[in-house]
Design goal:
Layout (H helix, E strand, L loop, with lengths): L2 E2 L2 E2 L2 H34 L5 E5 L6 H17 L3 E5 L6 H8 L7 E6 H6 L13 E17 L7 H10 L5 E4 L5 H13 L4 E4 L3 H10 L4 E5 H10 L2 E6 L25 E9 L4 H15 L2 H8 L4 E2 L4 H22 L5
Parallel strand pairs: 3-4, 3-5, 7-8, 7-9
Antiparallel strand pairs: 1-2, 5-11, 6-9, 6-10, 6-11, 6-12
Helix pairs in contact: 1-9, 2-9, 6-11
Length: about 350
């Protein structure tokens, strides 16, 4: 029997340790190669076109923002950045397609506030927080709370008083059950301690039309769709839902100024990608986005849709998504909100 310093060797045990050392060496070699490849990928990124998936049809707010950003990033990154519209299931179809792609930074998703709402209304085939890489928030803006002239309501306080005097008689329009306009309105109703009947529509346009005509009494509308009608006198603006007033309607108070401290609901858009995008690539994308948003021409384009540039770090944007998923989840549960 072989010996070492006069002691017998256990050949089986020796073979085991030799095999283990060989396996460890192979594993370390593989890890080193993977690390080198990741570094090389980050340094060369992007070496081919980058796709931004939008979960809605062309022509809407998300599509508008995605195309502005795609154009700007094309110039900043030196590669074509293009938009692919994949509408369906309230934006979830596009999200699933994008988030199940390779985590290499070449497929991104244009997430909106509705993304954090959908997480609480749909059974998703992915985790909306854990299965993503947050890249950058792009822009945000308020809702405008507006009513028609026939209500004789001129302030948010008056709307609340009317709702308290006539419980359940006021009606409000939304762009659909489970939409962000539906959720935002229900949030205000809960904060104000009032009730109103929800009338869902298939989109913003018919909801706005019936609000103007008086079929329904009020709605939470986007800046782009609502402000022109407030300025023309077809609608009466009551308040904006963010902490700051709107430049296009500087005399319109915020909900906070109207007596509801801390109330803040924004319409935001941002870029996310599949889980696992290397940090160097995320940093490169985030820097390119921030540079694009710092361009006055970009801010001017976003302003036409009532939005202002956002300049979040990936970490801050990730925290926002997580907080809003929890926030709307609590509201959906408390108010018994469904897609029906």
């Amino acid at each position: 029997m072989a010996s070492y310093f006069g002691k017998p060797l256990n050949l089986a045990l020796c073979r085991h340790w030799i095999a283990a050392l060989i396996a460890l060496g192979a594993q370390l070699s593989t890890m080193s190669i993977a690390a080198a490849q990741a570094t090389q990928t980050a340094a060369e990124y992007p070496s081919k076109p980058v796709k931004i998936v939008v979960g809605f049809a062309p022509g809407g707010g998300s599509d508008f923002i995605a195309r502005i950003v795609a154009q700007k990033l094309t110039g900043k990154l030196g590669q074509t950045v293009y938009v692919e519209n994949r509408p369906g299931a309230g934006g979830n179809l596009g999200a699933e397609i994008a988030l199940k792609a390779a985590g290499d930074g070449y497929t991104l998703f244009l997430a909106a506030t509705s993304y954090t709402v959908n997480a609480n209304l749909y059974k998703l085939p992915f985790d909306p927080v854990k299965d993503i890489t947050a890249v950058a928030r792009l822009a945000s803006g308020p809702f405008v709370i507006a009513t028609n002239t026939g209500t004789q309501i001129a302030t948010l306080q008056a709307l609340v008083e009317r709702a308290k005097k006539e419980p359940g008689k006021l009606t409000y329009a939304s762009s659909g059950s489970g939409s962000i306009t539906h959720i935002a309105t229900e949030y205000f109703l809960s904060v104000a301690g009032i009730e109103a009947l929800h009338i869902p529509y298939k989109g913003t346009s018919p909801a706005l039309t019936d609000t103007i005509s008086g079929t329904v009494q009020f709605m939470f509308g986007t800046v782009a769709s609502t402000v022109p009608h407030v300025k023309s006198g077809k609608l009466v603006g009551l308040a904006v839902t963010t902490q700051e007033r709107l430049g296009a309607l500087p005399d319109l108070p915020t909900v906070i100024e109207s007596g509801y401290p801390g109330f803040d609901v924004a319409v935001w858009h941002g870029l996310i990608g599949p889980k696992g995008i290397p940090k160097d690539i995320v940093a490169k994308l985030n820097n390119a986005v921030l540079e694009s948003l710092s361009d006055p021409a970009t801010a001017e384009q976003l302003a036409t849709d009532g939005l202002t540039p956002a300049k979040d770090s990936p970490e801050a944007f990730s925290q926002l998504i997580e907080l809003e998923v929890k926030r709307w989840g609590a509201l959906v549960k408390a108010r018994g909100i469904t897609l029906k």
